């Protein structure tokens, strides 16, 4: 009900309505492009390749079916995500980039420019590897054709990057996140159709569908709770007298999100496990490769356990990169604040680090459970090809919540402006 009332209020505001229409128009262009085929590739051969490997299926889910069609948007926005992650890691280890990150808007624009260049380079390298990997689907597997397909795929990714930036600048929400959101949601009709077909032929029964709906509802509720969950550390600011005015003296809080890393650890862990598995499939005749594929295939006990452990490890690693307790403690001290019962400076940093470690454990375990959820859903419902895995739900729910928050922020800002005008 709150979602509908917020959307109804947003449509009534001219500026916000234009932003929503612009966002929808850009998403429509994305969905149209997902069905424009890449020249020189046989679509039927691509469908067979996707059915044969986990890696290709993963790309297809993220790209919203564009990879299955092998359209100009086949690589989706994954190279941009990888470039952004790499830049965040480099910002920590390269002092020049760290200084740029602290220079405000100008520094942010410079880093964004580096990310664009990195996206183009990564997209081209990935496109070369992808064109070689699908050589069986190429009409003419020659060097010239490899480069031709790679250039088209790179251009498609760069265009998607531009499209996402336009949505962020002129529309509502984070453009890149909304493109991934639209790609995942676009798979819903196909998934529903497949479930109906299973029901008609008797592969599954109505109880399996009800079980899937109940599990999905519970998972969505858990994702919302975890996304909104935070630990609020109280911060007290001392009173300061400057001239005839008294500043400070209020009590506020330092919010620490339980899931600070978002879905990034899942992407890290997926890349670590999927790529070696796909590479070894090309050497299936080798005894070592056959042993690895037998024990570490998707859904096996060893694969699931290793996947969960990698997610937990990457969650701590990524959270440590984006959250610096020493900087947080220095900022609190610089503004005359302190945590009640904790001395300013190093003790404050140690206290924040201890709290972060505890809540990160809960967030990491939750991410691991969400990521391996499809294995248990398949066992519980016996419905094959569950498109909405835990990772997809995590992305969809997170993007939806953040977008609605931005809409509500615009509405709140407009109500403040209206109040000021009426007062004037």
Automatic annotation (TrEMBL):
<comment type="subunit">
    <text>Component of the Sec protein translocase complex. Heterotrimer consisting of SecY, SecE and SecG subunits. The heterotrimers can form oligomers, although 1 heterotrimer is thought to be able to translocate proteins. Interacts with the ribosome. Interacts with SecDF, and other proteins may be involved. Interacts with SecA.</text>
</comment>
<keyword id="KW-0811">Translocation</keyword>
<protein>
    <recommendedName>
        <fullName>Protein translocase subunit SecY</fullName>
    </recommendedName>
</protein>
<feature type="transmembrane region" description="Helical">
    <location>
        <begin position="146"/>
        <end position="164"/>
    </location>
</feature>
<keyword id="KW-1003">Cell membrane</keyword>
<dbReference type="InterPro" id="IPR030659">
    <property type="entry name" value="SecY_CS"/>
</dbReference>
<feature type="transmembrane region" description="Helical">
    <location>
        <begin position="114"/>
        <end position="134"/>
    </location>
</feature>
<dbReference type="GO" id="GO:0065002">
    <property type="term" value="P:intracellular protein transmembrane transport"/>
</dbReference>
<keyword id="KW-1133">Transmembrane helix</keyword>
<dbReference type="GO" id="GO:0043952">
    <property type="term" value="P:protein transport by the Sec complex"/>
</dbReference>
<feature type="transmembrane region" description="Helical">
    <location>
        <begin position="20"/>
        <end position="37"/>
    </location>
</feature>
<dbReference type="GO" id="GO:0006605">
    <property type="term" value="P:protein targeting"/>
</dbReference>
<feature type="transmembrane region" description="Helical">
    <location>
        <begin position="359"/>
        <end position="380"/>
    </location>
</feature>
<dbReference type="InterPro" id="IPR023201">
    <property type="entry name" value="SecY_dom_sf"/>
</dbReference>
<feature type="transmembrane region" description="Helical">
    <location>
        <begin position="73"/>
        <end position="94"/>
    </location>
</feature>
<comment type="similarity">
    <text>Belongs to the SecY/SEC61-alpha family.</text>
</comment>
<keyword id="KW-0813">Transport</keyword>
<feature type="transmembrane region" description="Helical">
    <location>
        <begin position="295"/>
        <end position="318"/>
    </location>
</feature>
<keyword id="KW-0653">Protein transport</keyword>
<dbReference type="InterPro" id="IPR002208">
    <property type="entry name" value="SecY/SEC61-alpha"/>
</dbReference>
<feature type="transmembrane region" description="Helical">
    <location>
        <begin position="171"/>
        <end position="189"/>
    </location>
</feature>
<dbReference type="GO" id="GO:0005886">
    <property type="term" value="C:plasma membrane"/>
</dbReference>
<comment type="function">
    <text>The central subunit of the protein translocation channel SecYEG. Consists of two halves formed by TMs 1-5 and 6-10. These two domains form a lateral gate at the front which open onto the bilayer between TMs 2 and 7, and are clamped together by SecE at the back. The channel is closed by both a pore ring composed of hydrophobic SecY resides and a short helix (helix 2A) on the extracellular side of the membrane which forms a plug. The plug probably moves laterally to allow the channel to open. The ring and the pore may move independently.</text>
</comment>
<feature type="transmembrane region" description="Helical">
    <location>
        <begin position="254"/>
        <end position="275"/>
    </location>
</feature>
<feature type="transmembrane region" description="Helical">
    <location>
        <begin position="201"/>
        <end position="224"/>
    </location>
</feature>
<feature type="transmembrane region" description="Helical">
    <location>
        <begin position="386"/>
        <end position="404"/>
    </location>
</feature>
<dbReference type="InterPro" id="IPR026593">
    <property type="entry name" value="SecY"/>
</dbReference>
<dbReference type="Pfam" id="PF00344">
    <property type="entry name" value="SecY"/>
</dbReference>
<keyword id="KW-0812">Transmembrane</keyword>
<keyword id="KW-0472">Membrane</keyword>
């Amino acid at each position: 009900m709150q979602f509908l009332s917020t959307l109804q209020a947003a449509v009534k505001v001219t500026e916000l309505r234009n932003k929503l229409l612009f966002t929808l128009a850009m998403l429509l262009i994305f969905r149209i492009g997902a069905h424009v085929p890449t020249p020189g590739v046989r679509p039927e051969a691509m469908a067979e390749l996707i059915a044969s490997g986990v890696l290709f299926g993963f790309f297809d889910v993220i790209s919203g079916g564009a990879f299955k069609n092998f359209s100009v948007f086949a690589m989706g926005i994954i190279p941009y995500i990888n470039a952004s992650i790499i830049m965040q890691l480099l910002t920590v280890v390269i002092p020049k980039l760290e200084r740029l990150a602290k220079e405000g808007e100008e520094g942010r624009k410079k880093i964004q420019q580096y990310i664009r260049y990195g996206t183009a380079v990564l997209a081209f390298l990935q496109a070369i590897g992808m064109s070689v990997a699908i050589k069986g689907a190429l009409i003419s597997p020659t060097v010239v054709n490899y480069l031709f397909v790679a250039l088209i795929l790179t251009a498609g990714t760069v265009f998607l990057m531009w499209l996402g930036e336009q949505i962020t600048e002129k529309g509502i929400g984070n453009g890149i996140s909304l493109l991934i959101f639209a790609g995942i949601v676009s798979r819903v009709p196909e998934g529903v159709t497949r479930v109906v077909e299973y029901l008609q032929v008797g592969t599954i029964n109505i109880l399996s569908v009800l079980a899937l709906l109940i599990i999905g509802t519970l998972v969505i509720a858990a994702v919302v709770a975890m996304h909104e969950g935070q630990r609020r550390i109280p911060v007290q600011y001392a009173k300061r007298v400057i001239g005839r005015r008294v500043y400070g003296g209020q009590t506020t809080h330092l919010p620490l999100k339980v899931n600070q890393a978002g879905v990034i650890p899942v992407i890290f862990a997926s890349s670590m496990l999927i790529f070696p598995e796909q590479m070894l499939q090309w050497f299936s005749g080798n005894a070592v490769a056959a042993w690895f594929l037998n024990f570490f295939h998707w859904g096996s006990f060893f694969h699931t356990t290793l996947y969960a452990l990698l997610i937990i490890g990457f969650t701590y690693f990524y959270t440590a990169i984006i959250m610096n307790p020493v900087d947080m403690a220095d900022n609190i001290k610089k503004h005359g604040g302190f945590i009640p019962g904790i001395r300013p400076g190093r003790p404050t940093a140690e206290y924040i680090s201890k709290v972060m470690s505890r809540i990160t454990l809960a967030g990491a375990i939750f991410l691991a459970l969400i990521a391996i959820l499809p294995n248990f859903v398949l066992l519980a419902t016996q419905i094959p090809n569950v498109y909405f895995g835990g990772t997809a739900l995590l992305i969809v729910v997170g993007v939806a919540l953040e977008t609605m928050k931005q809409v509500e922020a615009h509405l709140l800002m407009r109500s403040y402006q209206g109040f000021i005008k009426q007062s004037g």
